[in-house]
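User: Reviewer 2 asked us to show a designed sequence for the structure in our supplementary figure. I'm pasting the structure tokens here. Could you produce the per-position amino acids so we can include them in the response letter?
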């Protein structure tokens, strides 16, 4: 029985390419990922999903924060965080921590879910009466459909 080879990730494929620029990029991604994991040891677990290391260069660590609320919270923690990180091997040269707000990407809209109305037949009758008092048009049609769906 032959074993299937584990599929390579996109990063592994780039790293294995003969392009030195691609290899350097992948190494940088892994460095920032490792630094991000290391940083999270010093942050409350509740904020882990909302703060990540975006860059580290010339003694400056740049963090991406998903909301202004977390940015404010982080701003007050930076002096203590900076002191703790400077005591770690390899981060003694850390001069400052800065941040920027990068909102989370909104999820893609899924299919519309039509829920059954939880209204009484009396409510359906009131909606139907309101619809009949309107001129013919889109709103009247919508209200009539709502009243009909409640009546079923």
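Assistant: Here is a per-position design you can include in the supplement:
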């Amino acid at each position: 029985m032959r074993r299937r080879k584990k599929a390579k990730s996109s990063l592994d494929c780039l790293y294995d390419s003969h392009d030195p620029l691609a290899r350097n990029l992948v190494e940088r991604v892994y460095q920032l990922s490792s630094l991000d994991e290391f940083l999270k040891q010093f942050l409350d677990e509740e904020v882990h999903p909302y703060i990540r290391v975006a860059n580290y260069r010339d003694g400056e660590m740049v963090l991406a924060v998903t909301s202004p609320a977390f940015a404010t919270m982080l701003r007050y923690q930076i002096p203590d965080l900076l002191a703790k990180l400077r005591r770690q091997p390899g981060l003694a040269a850390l001069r400052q921590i800065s941040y920027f707000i990068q909102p989370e990407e909104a999820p893609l809209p899924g299919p519309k879910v039509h829920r059954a109305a939880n209204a009484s037949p009396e409510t359906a009758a009131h909606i139907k009466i309101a619809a009949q008092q309107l001129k013919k048009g889109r709103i009247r049609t919508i209200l009539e459909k709502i009243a009909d769906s409640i009546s079923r």
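For the response letter, you might also mention the following. The chain has two domains: 10-101, 121-151. The chain has a mean pLDDT of 82.
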